[in-house]
Amino acid sequence: MADIRVKQRIQSGQGPYIPANGNDFGEQFVTGGLPPYTEWTRKGMGPWSAMSSTAYAALVARPTTTAGVEIRNNSSNGTCLIIDRIFCEWRLATAVASSAVMYAMVGPQAAITAGSFPIYSGSGKAYGGQVTVAINQTVTDLGWFPWGNSITAALAAATPNGGQDSRVEGRIIVQPGHALCLHVVASVTGDTFVQGASWFEAVLDME
Questions:
Q1: b/e string for 28-55 if b means 16 or more Cβ within 10 A?
Q2: Could you give the CA distance from residue 79 to residue 174 in angstroms, rounded to a whole number?
Q3: Which of 191, 5, 168, 196 shows the shortest CA–CA distance to 88?
Q4: Whole-model pTM?
Q5: 27 Cβ partners below 8 Å, 6+ apart?
């Protein structure tokens, strides 16, 4: 049994050191007292969310130099965007069976000069960060990859017609000067979508 001791905090003061037993590898089993993300949300680190208000047409081939939505990190103090999820809503489906999947890309991109739209919080706090979000942006192709399972539309045209939510949970980090680029690829020309993402913000050492 490993000998592990921690400093006990009692209200505003510091209590004595108490045993915190672990196994032979120094591991401990712990549990959170609140649901995941509660503390980050309380501290105003997110989740911040933005999505396009205007629907745009899905591509019928892998994205290259056009992003349906671009979320750029303009931070000057090392703040990174820790992507929690990306999502889309199918606004118009053509009257044939079709399927679609979201694509994402991350890396350095030029600054967005126009077309930014609002960023909202999960706790009602006003956004004061340095992120710019816009649609239909020309970007450098740094490698697009699908995220999440594909979704399907019914045979009849409908508005709206379902959506997709893909949990990223920190597997994408957007450094300062970089951007998260999003698009939708569908099997049928003419299907339109709105799309966006949610993220937390923190200063990270990206080594």
A1: eeeeeeeeeeeebbeebbbbbbbbbeeb
A2: 9
A3: 196
A4: 0.83
A5: none
C-alpha pair distances (Å), 170 with each of 82, 89, 156? 5, 22, 37
Which position has the token pair 């209200």?
Answer: 11
Q: With contact defined as beta carbons under 8 Å apart, do 109 and 179 qualify?
A: yes
Encoded tokens for 188? 């049928």
Cα distance between the two ends of the chain: 35
Per-residue pLDDT of the chain (207 residues; tens, 9 = 90+): 455 555 555 445 566 666 666 777 767 777 777 888 888 899 889 999 999 988 999 999 999 999 999 999 999 999 999 999 999 998 888 777 788 999 999 999 999 887 778 999 999 999 999 999 999 999 999 999 999 888 887 766 667 678 899 999 999 999 999 999 999 999 988 889 999 999 999 999 988
Instruction: Find the largest Cα–Cα distance for the chain.
Output: 70
Nearest CA to 20 out of 36, 4, 8 is that of 4
Neighbours of 19 (CB within 10 A): 10
